[in-house]
Amino acid sequence: MNRFAFYRLHAITFLPVFVYSNVYGSRLIHVYEKEKYMSASAVKETLNPFEIAQKQVKTACDRLNADPAVFEILKKPQRVLEVNFPVKLDNGTVENFTGYRSQHNNAVGPYKGGVRFHPNVNMDEVKALSIWMTIKCCVAGIPYGGGKGGITLDPRNYSEAELERIARAYSEAISPLIGEKIDIPAPDVNTNGKIMSWMVDAYENVVKHSAPGVFTGKPVEFGGSLARTEATGYGVNFAAVQALEKLGKDVKGATYAIQGFGNVGYHTGYYAHKAGAKIVAVSTVDVAIYNENGLDMEAIIKEFQTKGFITNEAGYGKEISNAELLALEVDVLAPCALENQLTSENAGKVRAKIVVEGANGPTTPEADVILRQNGVLVVPDILANCGGVVVSYFEWVQNLQGYYWEFDEVQEKETVVLRRAFRDIWNLAQEYDVDLRTASYMMSIRRVEKAMKLRGWY
Ligand code: NAD
What we know:
This protein has a seven-stranded mixed beta sheet with strand order 10-9-8-7-11-12-13, sandwiched between helices. Strands 1-2-3-5-4-6 form a six-stranded mixed beta sheet. The chain is built from 16 helices and 13 strands. It is an alpha/beta fold. 52% of the residues are buried. The chain is globular and about 55 Å long. Helix 12 links the parallel strand 12 and strand 13. It binds nicotinamide-adenine-dinucleotide.
């Protein structure tokens, strides 16, 4: 079956719930996007991540003087799937959940990207996140395209048994469009290895064969890779260390503030602490804690390892707001929570020397300009947090070959990839006199552009 026929088949199968687009275009999605784009362009600063991602791609395409077809293709995902699926809750009632999967571009390789459980998940968000994944995979030089998915829900409102049924139903619903050589999801906000295991099991029940490589971020006992859980935060700190070096600073004694102390924030803090940095502030959605003398990281690490989150019950420091945390005078500010944390409203208040983006999309384009004007060095998400997808790629390689590597071997391989990516992007930024974000997009778009050209897409 050729590519077009394959897409058509699935578009028909999912007609009631499927919003469908590919490189050949779709009238339906065109109208939808045009309206959204026009209404948002009337306001000064858009917080719509899809529009932000499109702007970032456009800036890099213009800077590269790329063929106009390149932006035309990259500005939209090839396919976007919306699924609505009923799940029985513990109290006997039924809730109809909405989930998405966006597949942006597979010129370089199969789609790859996380699955998020969050009340704000919507179609534009997954579309943006899938664009960022295409760019991120090419920044790292791994053979994947970009995908992303999510379910609109607040997981705190559901029992573990309910979350399992939701995860399984979502995996079944998207199963016709994913696969080890097609689209490989992974954990993201509020999802983890346990959830990936349920999703693999549900997928295998549909396809009736073993396919451990269809999801990454699995527990080690179930085909996961050693050093995957640590990979993103390890990479975020490694990016911070390299940026500090560029400013002539040592990580030893450097001060860090970390917004969002989940998987990414915790491991960023863990590795920074191990390298001798002084972590002065960390936060979660519930609390932000500040201690100018440095937080007791040994105790914080212990609490996180025990509970999976932190509180300030032990009195690690004084409680401040998340807004105050973002404005602290530190060497490294690591936003590791969600998008749009630094906007035109608060970017001028940032006093950090370096912003290293652990989260995806924490800085709006307007905030980017302000930070640059104020001399803040921003290490963009697609470079700073690409360690996660790099080790996801290693997990997938191990699954496909059925041969597993040691922890140190994985982390060494990750380090090699991250060092090369940082060096190449730093050099490109110098060559074109652009910021690291634009340089990262330029590097990636060059790679995708070449693959698309070779495939004859333009
Ligand atoms: P997580 O759910 O493990 O942690 C998120 C943390 O952010 C939690 O501590 C939560 O309390 C906190 N948080 C949420 N809203 C907040 C707010 N408004 N203010 C302060 N803190 C807030 O998620 P994660 O896996 O660590 O992902 C965090 C970010 O990193 C997301 O943007 C995600 O897309 C990105 N990311 C994750 C990975 C990965 O491997 N997990 C890889 C690349 C990028």
